[in-house]
Amino acid sequence: MEKKLKLLTYGCQMNVADSERMAGLLKKIGYTLTDDVQNADLILINTCCVRSTAEEKVFGQIGRFKSLKREKPNLILGVTGCMAQKEGENLIKRAPHVDFVLGTGQSGEIARVVQNLEFERKKFVDTSNVNGEIPHEAFPLRGGKISTFVPIMYGCDNFCTYCIVPHVRGRERSRPTEEILAEVEQSVAEGFKDITLLGQNVNSYACGTFAELLREVDKISGVERLRFMTSHPKDLSDELIAAISGGKHICEHIHLPVQHGSDKILQKMNRGYTVEKYLGLVKKIRAEIPNLSLTTDLIVGFPGESDEDFAETLDFLREVKFDAAFTFIYSKRSGTPAATFKNQIEDEIKHERLNKLMKIQNAISLEKNSAMIGSVVEVLVEGASKTDEKIFTGRTRSNKLILFEHGGENAGDLVDVKISQAQTWLLKGKILTK
Ligand code: SF4
Q1: What pLDDT digit, counting tens, does each position of 280-315 carry?
Q2: What is the CATH number that goes with domain 376-431?
Q3: Which residue among 239, 281, 327, 377 has its CA within the 20 to 30 Å range from the CA of 59?
Q4: How far is the CA of 224 from the centre of ligand 1 (A)?
C-alpha cells in the first residue's frame, strides 16, 4: 500500500539537505511525498533551534496536529533536527501526541524507527549520539529543479559563545571526497546545474583541503555553477582564494559571516579574528577575485554591546560595502555561554539597532546593484516568477536574483542579460539575442 509522507522543514539549508536525505530513506520503505497534511500517514517535522522564535513556531505547529492525530489514530508524528536533539524527552512530555523524537546524529535511523512504529505504537526517543554517522547510502529526494545542496561535512568545532550548533549537531565530521563527488554526479544526472557544497564551516573540511575538493567538483561535467557555504573567516585560506579565482564553474561569491564590527564583541563571541584581520582578508579576496560578490551575517544586541560597539559595526559596514548582509537580533540560547553573560540588551534597543543597521546596508546593496546597470551578466534561468508567468527569474554567478521578460528560454538555460534596473534585493534586465 502506498504511504504518504508530509515533511515540514524549518531552518537552514543544512536542514533542507537533511530532510531530503530522510525522505530518500523513507522512500525505500514505501513513503512518497504529499503536500496535503490530511492525506499523510507520516508527518515529519525537521526542526531548528538557532533562534527562540524558530522553536516557538515549531511548538505551535506540533500543537496544530493534535486534533488530526485524534481523527487519524494511525498517523505517525515524528520530530527530528536540532530542536529534537536539544529537547529530547521534553518534547514528548510537552506534546504527548508526538510518537517519536530522533536527534541529529540518528537521522540515518529514520526508516528503521518508522517501521518499528508501524508495527508497534510505542513512544520512541533517541538523542544519544550527537556525533552519529551520516547516512552514506541515502539517495536524497531533492526539491527544486536547478539548484541543490550537497553536504560535505556536519557539525562544528568552533563554539562561538552565542551558538547552539556545536551542542545540537556535534563535532565536525567530513564526508569522504569520493562520496561527495558521487553525489554531485548523481545530482547532475538528475538535471541539477547549480550545486552548493554545504557545511557549518566548509573551510575546515578534513578529507584533504576544501580547495582540493572544490577543484575536483569543478571538473565534473554538467556542473554549471559551483557554490559553497558557510566560510569561517579565520579559516579561509590563500589556496581557497586561488581555487576560486582559477576555477571554471566556481562562482565569484563568498558568504563570509563577520557577525560584528567591534573587536571587543568579536572576542566575547569567540570568533577568533579581529576587525583588522577580516578587513585584510576582504582586501586580499577582492584583489584576487574580480567581480566578487561578498555577503555576510551580522548580529545586533549581543550582551554587553555598547552604543560605541554598535557604532563601530556601522562604520565597518560603510567601509566594507557588502553586496548583502543577513542581519539578526541576538537570541539567548540556553546552554550557550552568552546566555549567562551580564548586560543583556533590552529588546527595544536591539530592534532600534537592527533598523539602523538594515537601513544602512539596504542603501549600500542598492548602490552596489545600481552600479551594475548597463552591464551584461550570465544568468542561469530558474523559471517563471510567482506573480507573472511572462517574467522569468534567474541568478547571476554572483548569486543575485534577476528578473527578465521571457523569450522562450527553459529553466536551466544559460543566457546573457543586460541589466536595466536595480533594487535592493534584485535586478531587472533584458535578454540579449544571440
Ligand atoms: S562557526 Fe560559530 S556560528 Fe558558525 S556554526 Fe560554528 S559555532 Fe555556530
Answers
A1: 999 999 999 988 999 999 999 999 999 999 999 999
A2: 2.40.50.140
A3: 327
A4: 29
- With helix as H, strand as E and coil as C, how does 128-187 read? CCCCCCCCCCCCCCCCCCCEEEEECEECCCCCCCCCCHHHHHCCCEECCHHHHHHHHHHH
Q: Are 332 and 338 in contact (CB under 8 A)?
A: yes
Q: How far is the CA of 271 from the centre of ligand 1 (A)?
A: 9
Q: Where along the chain do its domains lie?
A: 3-126, 147-370, 376-431
What integer pLDDT is reported at residue 56 of this predicted model?
86
| Count of CB atoms situated within 10 Å of the CB of 184 | 22
| pTM score over 0.85 | yes
CATH of segment(s) 147-370? 3.80.30.20
Q: Does domain 3-126 have CATH number 3.40.50.12160?
A: yes
Q: Which of the listed residues 51, 156, 297 should we mutate to test ligand 1's pocket, taking the one with most ligand atoms within 8 A of CB?
A: 156
Ligand 1, atom 2: closest residue by C-alpha: 160
Task: Dump pLDDT digits (tens) for 394-430.
Answer: 999 999 999 999 888 889 999 999 999 999 999 999 9
Atom of ligand 1 minimally distant from the CA of 156: 6
Over residues 106-138, the pLDDT tens digits come to 999 999 999 999 999 999 999 998 888 776 666
- Site of grid cell 582578508: 281
